[in-house]
C-alpha cells in the first residue's frame, strides 16, 4: 500500500510491475488471507498492528478484484491494463508531437526489436507499450527464478528499459503539470 502509493506517484511503470508481482504472489499464496498476512505483512516489523490490518484489507481488495475480473489463475487487473493504455496513448502522442523528439530517438532503437519480441511474447494484437511491459515483467521473473541469463527476452532489455523509463518520466511530468505536450519539448 505504502510502496504502491509511492510508486504510483513517482514512477507509473514501477507501479504497474509492482502490482503484477503482487498478483502473482497472491496466486502463489492461493489467495489465503492467512498466508498473505504471514508471508507479506507479518515480517514487516516497522508496521503497527493498525497498519498491518490496513495492508491486509488492501491486499484482500486486490484479491477480490482479481477474482471478480476472472483473473484468479492468470491475467492482470483491468486497472493496470488501463494505465498501460494511457501510457500507450501518451506514446502515440510523443511519436507525433514536437515534445516527443527525444522519445522518438529512444524508441527508434527499440522499434526493430519489436517483431522478434512479439514472436516471443505472443499475442500479435498487443500494443507496443503492453508488449514492453510484458517483456520487462518476464525478465523480472527470470531474475527472481535465477534464470536472468535467458536471452529470449532479456537481450532486448537494453532497448526496452530506456523507452519505458522515458515514457514513465514524461507521464509524471505531464501528470504534475510540468510538461505541456503541445507547447514544451520533453527532455
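^ C-alpha cells above, recovered residues below v
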Amino acid at each position: 500500500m505504502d510502496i504502491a502509493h509511492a510508486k504510483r506517484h513517482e514512477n507509473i511503470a514501477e507501479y504497474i510491475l509492482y502490482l503484477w508481482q503482487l498478483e502473482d504472489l497472491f496466486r502463489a499464496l492461493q489467495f489465503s488471507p492467512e498466508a498473505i498476512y504471514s508471508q507479506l505483512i507479518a515480517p514487516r516489523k516497522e508496521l503497527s498492528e493498525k497498519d498491518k490490518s490496513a495492508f491486509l484489507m488492501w491486499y484482500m481488495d486486490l484479491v477480490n478484484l482479481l477474482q471478480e475480473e476472472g483473473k484468479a489463475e492468470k491475467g492482470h487487473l483491468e486497472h493496470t491494463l488501463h494505465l498501460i493504455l494511457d501510457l500507450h496513448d501518451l506514446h502515440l502522442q510523443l511519436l507525433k508531437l514536437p515534445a516527443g523528439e527525444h522519445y522518438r530517438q529512444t524508441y527508434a532503437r527499440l522499434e526493430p526489436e519489436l517483431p522478434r519480441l512479439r514472436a516471443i511474447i505472443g499475442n500479435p494484437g498487443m500494443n507496443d507499450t503492453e508488449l514492453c511491459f510484458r517483456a520487462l515483467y518476464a525478465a523480472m521473473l527470470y531474475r527472481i527464478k535465477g534464470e536472468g541469463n535467458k536471452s529470449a527476452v532479456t537481450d532486448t532489455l537494453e532497448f526496452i528499459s530506456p523507452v519505458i523509463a522515458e515514457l514513465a518520466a514524461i507521464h509524471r511530468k505531464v501528470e504534475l503539470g510540468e510538461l505541456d505536450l503541445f507547447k514544451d519539448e520533453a527532455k
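The two ends are 30 Å apart (CA to CA).
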